[in-house]
Specification:
elongated, 2 strands, single chain, 187 residues, Cytochrome Bc1 Complex, Chain D, domain 2, mainly alpha, two-stranded parallel ribbon
Length: 187
């Protein structure tokens, strides 16, 4: 190999190394961090009546800023047949997930409790049937349906029929607490 070819190969290797080093990728944790798991287990999750969530409980969703996890939540939403009741988030026999009305609270821990415990008059309990990390992925996706996650994290297109805009095109809804009768309390 002549000197010119060697110089080109060395330059290409150095440029490739710089590109790999300079490129910052999104971190993909495939298992839930233990700190969030411990916090969720310490929650009092037996109160399933509608109303304002307990303001003292704050548990961050470990997957809320992870685009891969939100996309997995979207896949799981269809896979676990959440569409059967929630109709791509627009509501059906279950409540709509794309609007600003949250019957049991809009915080990640409230949505987690709804999935794990179920709710009266319709929502079955999936506790013990869905792994905890998948529940958190579902929570991240459900919050993306009403624009509660970053637009760069939410999915940019739907792979199915266009029944609704993609999640990153949703306007952020300001969650309001629904009354027990089902009406919302708008300020």
């Amino acid at each position: 190999m002549n000197v010119a070819c060697r110089a080109i190969v060395v330059a290409a290797l150095c440029a490739g190394t710089l590109l790999v080093v300079a490129c910052e990728r999104e971190r993909r944790d495939f298992q839930q961090p233990p700190s969030a798991s411990i916090a969720v287990k310490s929650l009092r999750m037996s109160d399933i009546t509608p109303g304002a969530p307990d303001p003292g409980v704050r548990v961050a969703n470990p997957y809320e800023e992870n685009a891969y996890a939100v996309a997995e939540g979207k896949r799981l939403f269809g896979w676990y047949n959440c569409n059967g009741c929630h109709a791509d988030g627009g509501g059906g026999s279950g409540p709509a997930l794309m609007d600003d009305v949250w019957i049991y609270g809009s915080e990640p821990v409230n949505i987690f409790a709804t999935i794990v415990q179920g709710r009266p008059n319709g929502m079955p309990s999936f506790g013990g049937r869905i792994p905890e990390n998948e529940v958190w992925q579902l929570v991240a996706y459900v919050r993306s349906l009403s624009g509660q996650v970053s637009k760069t994290t939410a999915a940019s297109r739907n792979d199915t029929l266009m029944t609704k805009p993609s999640e990153n095109r949703m306007d952020k809804e300001k969650p309001v607490q629904a009354t027990p009768s089902g009406a919302s309390e708008h300020p």
